[in-house]
């Protein structure tokens, strides 16, 4: 049995360390690795007869949320769309995966550090591809910019900005704090300002509106704990018009996508595709507000003509005509909270909101704004960045992909599990940590 434990320890650690590489490329393998880690965690818990991790508040709510989605999916999934039921069933792998990182695989500071190096390497790889594309018109792999001018990084489609907006938060914050503490005085502040401005400029060059906004928002939120960065980030915010101006000169198509189209969308939101998608999703959810339409409902039922109409809110007409019919039927409604309302109704939405809130609460355990040693300051800023990444990913007004879709969903749960592994140190879990004495010792 001891040999089985050691195999599970080493193989899952290896799987976690290579996961970012396959989230960057070959997401099918990444999904397999996440499933493998989740299965190994269940086996490991069974062998050790240790299920204390399941008593955590976020785990309990996560299981209730998953169970409710299953119940809401049964009427549709079993008789009409079998794939819906299968997708709802395997959604549990993300909960096990995050818990595995928290209480088992990443309880040792050394392994967290190893994973952070891999994450940094992946972020550098994506940025280098963007820089190459900005300068030469092609990335390292030979792919050109997207047709609308956005930088695609190492991909053929604009997928780089989403992961970068999450990855760069802990990386940028910890590197900036390191420079401030290490160099001291104005030199450290100047280097930190350069780092933040460079990263913000790269996010602007990416030409993706929501990732850029979420990244800046995450940086601002982090200032609650990172006092040395407050003046520097204020300077960065003042420089944002200059950054956007530089984007209009160095990458006009990125500027058009980032600024011009954004202004147009906000001015005509009700008739814009995003507004029509949200309206259609709300119509679908309101048609069955207590149980929703089952997992991934927007993908499967959006094209049903019974939803081709507007709605009225407090006497105000929202949407008109057929709402562009099936033309706006994409795989997801571009907002996790609206997605949960469509999938599982009001109870499912409430459980999802509570689960996300508990993630945030657990992630801020042990964070401080006090002056610390260099090592502790860097660690604290890295953890603040992980919290900010999870916060912006699940910010209620953020637009994004489907909740469980990879690769972005995989990046999210990887960062969530890593952040929870730090917060686990600050809870009353000493006895549990002694039991999970394989990787965590």
UniProtKB/TrEMBL annotation:
The chain crosses the membrane at residues 7-23, 29-47, 59-79, 85-107, 114-140, 160-181, 188-204, 210-226, 233-251, 340-361, 382-400, 406-424. It comes from the Bacteria. InterPro entries: O-antigen_ligase-rel_domated, WaaL-like. It is a multi-pass membrane protein. This is O-antigen ligase-related domain-containing protein. One of its GO terms (cellular component) is membrane. The keyword Transmembrane helix applies. Residues 195-353 form the O-antigen ligase-related domain.
């Amino acid at each position: 049995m001891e040999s089985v434990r050691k195999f599970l320890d080493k193989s899952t650690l290896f799987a976690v360390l290579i996961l970012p590489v396959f989230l960057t490329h070959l997401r099918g393998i990444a999904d397999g690795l996440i499933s493998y880690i989740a299965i190994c965690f269940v086996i490991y818990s069974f062998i050790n007869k240790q299920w204390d991790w399941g008593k955590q508040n976020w785990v309990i709510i996560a299981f209730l949320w998953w169970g409710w989605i299953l119940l809401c999916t049964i009427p549709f999934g079993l008789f009409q769309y079998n794939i819906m039921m299968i997708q709802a069933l395997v959604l549990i792998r993300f909960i096990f995966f995050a818990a595995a990182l928290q209480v088992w695989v990443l309880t040792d500071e050394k392994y967290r550090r190893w994973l952070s190096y891999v994450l940094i390497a992946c972020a550098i790889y994506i940025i280098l591809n963007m820089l190459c594309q900005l300068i030469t018109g092609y990335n390292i792999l030979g792919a050109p910019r997207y047709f609308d001018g956005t930088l695609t990084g190492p991909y053929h489609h604009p997928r780089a900005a989403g992961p970068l907006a999450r990855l760069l938060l802990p990386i940028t914050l910890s590197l900036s704090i390191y420079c401030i503490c290490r160099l001291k005085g104005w030199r450290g502040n100047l280097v930190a300002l350069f780092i933040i401005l460079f990263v913000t400029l790269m996010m602007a060059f990416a030409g993706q509106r929501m990732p850029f906004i979420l990244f800046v928002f995450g940086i601002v939120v982090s200032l609650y704990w990172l006092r040395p960065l407050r003046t520097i980030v204020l300077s960065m915010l003042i420089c944002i018009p200059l950054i956007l101006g530089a984007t209009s000169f160095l990458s006009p198509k990125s500027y058009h996508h980032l600024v011009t189209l954004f202004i147009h969308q906000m001015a005509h939101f009700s008739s814009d595709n995003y507004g029509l998608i949200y309206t259609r999703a709300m119509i679908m959810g309101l048609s069955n507000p207590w149980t929703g339409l089952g997992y991934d409902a927007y993908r499967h039922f959006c094209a049903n003509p019974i939803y081709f109409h507007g709605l009225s809110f407090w006497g105000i007409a929202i949407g008109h005509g057929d709402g562009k019919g099936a033309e706006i039927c994409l795989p997801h409604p571009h907002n996790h909270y609206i997605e949960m309302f469509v999938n599982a109704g009001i109870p499912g939405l409430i459980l999802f909101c509570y689960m996300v809130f508990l993630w945030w609460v657990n992630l801020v355990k042990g964070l401080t704004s006090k002056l610390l040693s260099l090592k502790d300051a860097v660690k604290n800023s890295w953890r603040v960045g992980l919290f900010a990444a999870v916060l912006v990913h699940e910010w209620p007004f953020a637009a994004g992909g489907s909740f469980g879709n990879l690769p972005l969903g995989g990046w999210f749960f990887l960062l969530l599990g890593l952040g929870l592994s730090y917060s686990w140190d600050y809870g009353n879990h000493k006895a549990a940590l002694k039991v999970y004495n394989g990787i965590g010792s």
